[in-house]
Amino acid sequence: MAEEPEPVIAGPYALFDGSFILEFLKPKPSRDASVLMRATYKHDHPMCKLGKGHGQSPPLHIHFKQFESFSVLSGSVGTTTTYSLVDTIHTPSDTGEDKPHVIRPWMPHRFWPDPDAQQDATFLVWAHPNSDDVGDSKMDRLFFQNLLMYVSDVVEGKERLSILQVMLTQYVFFSRKPP
């Protein structure tokens, strides 16, 4: 029996001057995910040639209670992981749908476009588990959508960076109660 598809529930959003396309999908139950995103780096966009300097690439960060997993569907995606700052380029052959890369809680990490990519890179990324054990710190679509759209607007010059805005986004995310 085939598993149900994971339909788009929000997006696509063309962010960071069109260099990063983001969609939110409804995760299938077997993923046990609180959020599922399909992201695409446009390899020929000048911002993607910046690699780690791309505006979408977050600073090295950790998640306290959830794992973050990703699978590369096409192209190549870079990550920096661990406290030793290990850089890795992931492709469908080593990090495809059948063997996703799993980032454990408390593991420093960041994503970035491969500046040497020869084609667009599309990948799925999700946070899990989606259980009550995670509590109020469960990552979800609204958190990522608000944060990434805000940072994109800052990079594109539509908004000024406000540390207060970033702190409020995180505060609201961590202090809200699930429905």
CATH class: Mainly Beta
The shape, in one word, is: globular
CATH homologous superfamily heading: Jelly Rolls
Q: Architecture in CATH? A: Sandwich
Q: Note the main sheet.
A: 6 strands, antiparallel
Q: Beta-sheet strand percentage? A: 25-35%
Count of helical stretches: 3
Which regions have little confidence, pLDDT < 50, spanning 5+ residues? Answer: none
What is the CATH topology assignment?
Answer: Jelly Rolls
First-last Cα distance: 32 Å
Radius of gyration: 16 Å
> Can you count the beta strands?
9
Structural class: alpha+beta
Number of spatially distinct domains:
1
Physical arrangement of strands within the biggest beta sheet: 1-2-3-9-4-7
**Rounded average pLDDT:** 85
Q: What is the string of helix and strand elements?
A: EEEEEEHEEEHH
**Share of helix, binned:** 10-25%
Protein described:
By secondary structure, the chain is of the alpha+beta class. It has one domain (about 10-135): Jelly Rolls (Sandwich). It is built from 3 helices and 9 strands. The protein has helices at about 90-95, 140-155, 165-175; strands at about 10-15, 20-25, 35-40, 65-75, 75-80, 85-90, 100-105, 110-115, 120-130. The strands form 2 sheets. Strands 1-2-3-9-4-7 form a 6-stranded antiparallel beta sheet. Strands 6-5-8 form a 3-stranded antiparallel beta sheet. A hairpin with a 4-residue loop joins strand 5 (about 75-80) and strand 6 (about 85-90). The protein is globular, with a radius of gyration of 16 Å. The model has no long low-confidence stretch (mean pLDDT about 85).
